[in-house]
Amino acid sequence: MAESLLLAGGSLVRGGGTERADVLVVDGVIAAVGTALEQPSGTTVLDATGCWVGPGLVDLHTHLRQPGGEEAETVESGAWAAIAGGYTAVVAMPNTSPAADSTAVVAQVMALGRMTPIDVAPAGAITIARAGERLAPMAAMAALGVSIFTDDGTGVQDAGLMRRAMEYARGLGVTLAEHCEDESLAQGGCMNESGLSSRLGLVGRPALAEEAMVARDLLLAEATGCQLHLLHLSTARSVALCVAARARGVAVTAEVAPHHLTLTEECCSSYDTTFKVHPPLRAGDDVAALRRALRAGEIDAVATDHAPHAPQAKDRPFDEASPGMLGLETALALSIEALGGSEADPVQVFDVLSRAPSQIARLTKSDRRVGGYSAQGGNLEVGDAANLCVVDPEARPVVEAGALQSRASNTPYDGRMLLGGVRHTVAKGVAVKVDGEVRR
Amino acid sequence: MLGGHLLSISDLGPEGLEEILEMAERFAEVERRSVRKVPTLKGKVVASLFFEESTRTRLSFETAAKRLSADVLSLAVASSSVKKGESLRDTVATIDAMGIDAVVLRHRSSGAPTQVAGWLPTARVINAGDGSHEHPTQALIDLLTVRQVRAEQRGVASAGTGLSLLEGLEVLIIGDVRHSRVARSQILAYRLAGATVRLSSPGTLLPASLDGWDVEVVEDLDDALTRADVVSVLRIQDERGSGSFVPSIGEFHATFGMSVARAATLKQGAVITHPGPMVRGIEIASKVADDPRCLVLRQVTNGVPVRMAVLFLALSSSAGLDG
Known about the structure:
The complex is a heterodimer of chains A (440) and B (323). By secondary structure, chain A is of the alpha/beta class. Chain A is 29% helix and 20% strand. Chain A has helices at residues 75-84, 103-114, 138-143, 159-172, 183-186, 195-200, 207-224, 236-247, 258-262, 284-295, 311-314, 331-338, 346-360, and strands at 5-8, 11-14, 17-20, 22-26, 29-34, 44-47, 52-55, 57-62, 87-92, 119-122, 148-150, 175-178, 191-192, 204-205, 227-230, 252-256, 301-302, 388-392, 421-427, 430-434, 437-438. The longest helix of chain A is centred in the middle third of the chain and has 18 residues, at 207-224. The model of chain A has no long low-confidence stretch (mean pLDDT 97). Chain B has 323 residues and is α/β, with parallel strands linked by helices. Chain B folds into two domains: 2-134 and 301-318, 3-Layer(aba) Sandwich (Rossmann fold); 136-299, Aspartate/ornithine carbamoyltransferase (Rossmann fold). Chain B starts with 13 loop residues before the first helix and ends in an 8-residue tail after the last helix. Mean pLDDT of chain B is 91; it is low at 318-323. The chains are: A alpha/beta (440), B alpha/beta (323).
C-alpha cells in the first residue's frame, strides 16, 4: 500500500526556516531528507521544483455533513476536497443530523474517516443536539479520542451552562471551541450590521454580538482555567480582546476564516446568498485588521469553516438561505494572499495552516485510541509520519465552482484567480494529489 | 431603469425619475378619458406574484397592466404550490416557463426581486415591495402627488415641470423607518429630485446604522414640523415586530404620532403623505387623516398611472430604457 516517494527539487519549510532539500518517503514515514538522496528502486519521483514542501495542512473547522446532510457532503467527498486543498487532517464539526453529541455518532464519523486517506477527527458537541440546554457526554466522547468540543453554528448562549461546560472540560483536559455570537444581539440577522445592511433592508448581525460573547467566554475561561479556542473571529475588537486575555495568561487560541480575510460585506449588495455566512462578512477595516493580526501572530490559525450546502439551501431569499460557504479547496491560496501574496513567508503559511492547528486539535502525535490517526503538523524530521503538502506559489489556478471535489458548489470564489496552488498532497505516505490532480 | 427592471430607486438617475413622472402624467390623462384603455402592451403578459398580503398595490398594478392591454397572470400564493413547499426560484421558473414578459413581485424578504431578476433570463422584474428594502413605485407615486399639489399651489401644470417643483423641498419622514421599505425608496427618490430628507423616530425604529445615508436625524420633532414642506407619516409595522421596539403604541402616538395639535403647527402649503394602509389613532389622528392637507387618497389615485408608466417603460422596446 504505502509506496516510496521522492519529493525532489523543492524548498523544505520547517518551523525555523526554509532550505533546499528533497524528501524521501518510505512506508508512510519520512525516511531521509537532504540532497542527492539514494532512492530505493521503484520510487515514484514527484517534481517539487520551485515549490514549498511543508507539513500537510490541518483544518480546525470542517463541516462534513455526514450523517444527515449527504446531499451536500460526505466524509469521503469532504476528505477529497481537503486533499485537493493540501489538507491531511480535518476536524469535523458536530453540526450533523443527528448532531455528534454521542459516542455513536462520533464513532461513526471516525469509522467513515478511517476509510479516507486522511485523518478525520470529529469534534463533539458541548450540549445535547447543540441545543444549549444540557451537557453532552463529553467524557465518553473524550475516551474515544475527541479532544475538541463545540456547539458551532451557535455558541452556548447561557453563560451559566458555558461555565459549567468549561469546569467539566477542564477536568477532562479537552478544549472547548466557541462560535461567538450572542443570538439575542444577532437578532436572527443575515449580514453584518451596518449602513449597508440598513439600506438593503436586511437585519444585521452586529460586531457587538460577536465581541460581547468573546469577552464573556474569555472571562469564563479565565475563571475556570479551561482551554478555550475561539472559532472564526471576524472583527478587530474580537482579536484585541483575545490578545489582552492571552497577556493575562488566559489559555486561549483563535482562528480566522479565509473569507473573513478576503471578502467584505459589499459582497452581499446583490443579495447573492453564496456570501451569507455566520459570523457575517465584515467591512474593509475589519478585514484589514484581521490580516494585520494574522501576520503579527495574534491569531493562531486559519481555519476554513468549510460549509457545503445543497443548491436548494442557497436558492432562497437572503434571510432564509442557509449560512456558510465552501473553504477547503481555496484556503491555502487565500491565506497566502492574506499573508502578503508573493511576499508571504512560507514558514508562516505552514504555521497558521498546519503547525498551529495540529497543536490546537492535539493531532501532533498519533493517538493510539484512534486507529489510523497519524502525527500531523510536524517539522519534517526523519521518522515523522509522511503527511505533506507541496505548494507551488507561482501557480495561478482559477476557481471553478463546478469542478470542485466537494459535492457542493457554494464557493464565493467562482472565477477568482488564486495566488498559489497545491501541486502534491501526501497523506500517510500515499500520494493522493499529484501534479494538481487528485487520485480519487 | 437598469436592464428594464425596477428593483430599487437607485436603478434610476434623475432623467429616469423625470421620465417616469412625465409618462405618468400622460397616463393620468388616459385615466380621465371615457375609454380608459390603450393598446400599448397588447400581447404582453404580466405576472403578478404577491407573496405577501396587499390590497392597493396589487389592484393598482393589475389595473395598470389591464389599462395598457397586457394580459395579467395572477398568482394567489394561498392556493399555489408555494404552500406545498415549492421554492421561490422554482415558482418563478414555472411561471416564466409559461412565457411572461414582466413579473410584478411582492415578497416579505428583502432582495427577493433582485434575486428573481438574476434567475430569469428575459422577463423584466418590477419590485412591488420587498421586506424592509424598497417599494419604489410607492415613492414615485408620492413624488408625483407632491409635484401635482405644488403645481396647483403655483397655478401651473404639473406636466413638463420635471423635478423643478421638488428641488429644495424639506421632507420629514416620521415613524418606523427601520422596517419601512417605503422610507428607503422615498429617501432615494427625494434625494434624487434634489429635496432634503430628515428623519424623526424613536431610536429603536431608526435603521441600525445610517452610515452612508444622505439624511439627517432630527432632535426635535415639533421644531422640524414647522419647517417641513412634506411630512411622510409611516405605519408601525407590527407584522415585522415593530410593536416590541416601543414600550407601547400609546406612548408612540404621544411622542411621534401625527396629532391634530402637531398638524396645526405645519407651515402654509405643507402636505402630509401616507403610503397606506393608515392606522388611525396610532401614527395619524383620524382628523388629520381626513384633513385636505393629507394626500392619501390622491396617492392611491396616482397609483395606476405611475404603475402604467413603469410597466410601459419596462416593457416597451428595451433600447431606450437601459442605463
